[in-house]
């Protein structure tokens, strides 16, 4: 791989009501991988979106080809559960992933694919098991959030650092690169849902002795659609944090 990786990269892209964002994020991914000479595949895992996301994914599959560039997996909400989580999506997506490394990211354009080659270079540099995008280190940052969202995110990250001391600067972010076998192992260990899931992945990784590298990223608030962060999610996060503190 031209960007310094050692094998194929599978991107797991969970979606729910992302029909406006999906064509652009896929185009950016394809361009980034092709310009970097990286072997790749994109796996779209949709949660039965009512806005036509599924149809858009099928069109993209036809445009780019279904051999290995686009793989589309339909996950119906009524078949899985109402609480479709990132963890659920990753479990289903990994069944179709053929890459040595797996990138997880959001489909709402908050994570720019341009950072993926940097993840790959970082992985090779330190032979890391996980490379995590961080908003809280180096020139990383957040754009488009109001003060309330920034304070919630900073506060959650600070409390997590104090209680769990995980050795990584951004616990709640969801833009990461994993060795496939490491992600599979972590998925077997993690039990959290929602926002706590990403935090538990890093905590469990440290427990199991996996190495973690970090790459500063710019996080941009979603262009279309609404954020899923609300009061219920904050309460769930705090409960999950306390559970992790008591069990790790």
Automatic annotation (TrEMBL):
Give the chief site where it resides: endoplasmic reticulum
Q: State whether keyword Magnesium applies.
A: yes
Metabolic or biological pathway: Protein modification; protein glycosylation
> Keywords in UniProt for this one?
Endoplasmic reticulum, Glycosyltransferase, Magnesium, Manganese, Metal-binding, Transferase
- What processes does the entry annotate via GO biological process terms? dolichol-linked oligosaccharide biosynthetic process; GPI anchor biosynthetic process; protein O-linked glycosylation via mannose
Annotated TM spans: none
Q: Where in the cell is it found?
A: Endoplasmic reticulum
Q: What is its EC number?
A: 2.4.1.83
- Single GO molecular function: dolichyl-phosphate beta-D-mannosyltransferase activity
Q: Which cofactor does it need?
A: Ca(2+); Mg(2+); Mn(2+)
* Presence of the UniProt keyword Membrane in the record: no
Output the superkingdom of the source species.
Eukaryota
Q: What class of enzyme is it?
A: transferase
Show the catalytic activity. Answer: a di-trans,poly-cis-dolichyl phosphate + GDP-alpha-D-mannose = a di-trans,poly-cis-dolichyl beta-D-mannosyl phosphate + GDP
Q: Give all residue intervals belonging to the Glycosyltransferase 2-like domain.
A: 10-186
Q: Name one GO cellular component term.
A: endoplasmic reticulum membrane
Assembly, in brief, is: Component of the dolichol-phosphate mannose (DPM) synthase complex.
Query: Function of this protein?
Result: Transfers mannose from GDP-mannose to dolichol monophosphate to form dolichol phosphate mannose (Dol-P-Man) which is the mannosyl donor in pathways leading to N-glycosylation, glycosyl phosphatidylinositol membrane anchoring, and O-mannosylation of proteins; catalytic subunit of the dolichol-phosphate mannose (DPM) synthase complex.
Family, similarity comment: Belongs to the glycosyltransferase 2 family.
- Can you say what this protein is called? Dolichol-phosphate mannosyltransferase subunit 1
Native source organism of the sequence: Asarcornis scutulata
């Amino acid at each position: 791989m031209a960007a310094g990786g050692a094998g194929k990269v599978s991107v797991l892209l969970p979606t729910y009501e992302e029909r406006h964002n999906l064509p652009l994020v896929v185009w950016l991914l394809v361009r980034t991988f092709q310009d970097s000479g990286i072997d790749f595949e994109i796996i779209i895992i949709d949660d039965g979106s009512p806005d036509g996301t599924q149809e858009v994914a099928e069109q993209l599959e036809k445009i780019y080809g279904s051999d290995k560039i686009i793989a589309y997996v339909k996950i119906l909400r009524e078949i899985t559960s109402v609480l479709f989580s990132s963890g659920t999506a990753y479990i289903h997506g990994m069944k179709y992933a053929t890459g040595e490394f797996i990138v997880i990211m959001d489909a709402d354009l908050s994570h720019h694919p341009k950072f993926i080659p940097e993840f790959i270079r970082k992985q090779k540099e330190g032979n890391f098991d996980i490379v995590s995008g961080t908003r809280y280190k180096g020139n990383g940052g957040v754009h488009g959030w109001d003060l309330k969202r920034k304070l919630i995110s900073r506060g959650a990250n600070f409390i997590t650092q104090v209680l769990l001391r995980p050795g990584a600067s951004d616990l709640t972010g969801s833009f990461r690169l994993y060795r496939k076998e490491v992600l599979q192992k972590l998925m077997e260990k993690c039990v959290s849902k929602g926002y706590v899931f990403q935090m538990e992945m890093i905590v469990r990784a440290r427990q199991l002795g996996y190495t973690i590298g970090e790459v500063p990223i710019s996080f941009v608030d979603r262009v279309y659609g609404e954020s899923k962060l609300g009061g219920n999610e904050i309460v769930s996060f705090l409960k999950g944090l306390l559970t992790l503190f008591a069990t790790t």
